[in-house]
Amino acid sequence: GQQVMQIPQYQHVQEGEDFTTYCNSSTTLSNIQWYKQRPGGHPVFLIQLVKSGEVKKQKRLTFQFGEAKKNSSLHITATQTTDVGTYFCAGRSGTYKYIFGTGTRLKVLA
Amino acid sequence: DTAVSQTPKYLVTQMGNDKSIKCEQNLGHDTMYWYKQDSKKFLKIMFSYNNKELIINETVPNRFSPKSPDKAHLNLHINSLELGDSAVYFCASSQRLTSGSSADTQYFGPGTRLTVL
């Protein structure tokens, strides 16, 4: 079945450093979503990417969808303590079902 | 005004008991989901309903039975609870089923932390 892996599993950064999480699917995706889950909270939608090679920015966050539509990345510039949480990608592949990635847990040290 | 609400927030129960979790959304969405998040934070879809019709039914023990009395509600009943059922269960909704539009955005409830002793 479809699998979506994320690396790294954990990342500790100093405040101000950059952070990147990578999402890799075993199958070609129709589209991909990114969610953020704060500690003790619930996943909150960040963005959706649909087109091959698409790049979208939200302030310090940059999202990319690979040319082959099998991978994606989220890059955060100059992390802040408010960026702490687990970041999930969720890919859809020909069905109505979104498969969530394994998540990357980010800790930001002040 | 909470968009997606779940009750209860916490549920502690003994093995073998039967319990239910309720979910309501006031967003007017057509599609609702149940997800299970285990201790390693993996999020796995369990069920999805579209306009009260079951459309996604993952490999979940048949002790788990979802029920959607109307579009705004999706409840989860669990029979004969086992230790491995301990997890956080999230309900979510999306506007409708599409192929990659903004209507796919999923809105999650606050979660129900189930602990089976």
Provide an overview of this structure.
- The complex is a heterodimer of chains A (110) and B (117).
- With 110 residues, chain A is mainly beta.
- Chain A has no helices and 11 strands.
- In chain A, strands 2, 4, 5, 9, 10 and 11 form a 6-stranded mixed beta sheet that branches. In chain A, strands 1-3-8-7-6 form a 5-stranded antiparallel beta sheet, with no helix packed on it.
- Chain A is globular, with a radius of gyration of 13 Å.
- Chain B starts with a strand and ends with a strand.
- In chain B, the strands form 2 sheets. In chain B, strands 2, 4, 5, 6, 9, 10 and 11 form a 7-stranded mixed beta sheet that branches.
- Chain B contains no helices and 11 strands.
- By secondary structure, chain B is mainly β.
- In chain B, a hairpin with a 5-residue loop joins β4 and β5.
- Chains A and B meet through β4, β5, β9 and β10 of A and β5 and β10 of B.
| Largest interface, C-beta within 8 A | A-B, 24 and 24 residues
- How many helices of chain B does DSSP assign? 0
The residue fraction in helices of chain A comes out at under 10%
Q: Tell me the number of strands of chain A.
A: 11
* Biggest pleated-sheet summary of chain A: 6 strands, mixed
State mean pLDDT of chain B (0 to 100 scale): 92
Number of DSSP helices of chain A?
0
Give the overall shape of chain A: globular
Low-confidence stretches of chain B: none
Structural class of chain B: mainly beta
How would a textbook summarize the main sheet of chain B?
7 strands, mixed
End-to-end Cα distance of chain A:
41 Å
Radius of gyration of chain A: 13 Å
Amount of beta strand of chain B: over 45%
Beta-strand level of the residues of chain A, as a percent range? Answer: over 45%
Q: What does the average pLDDT of chain A come to?
A: 95
Radius of gyration of chain B: 14 Å
The tally of beta strands of chain B, per DSSP, is: 11
The quaternary organization reads as heterodimer
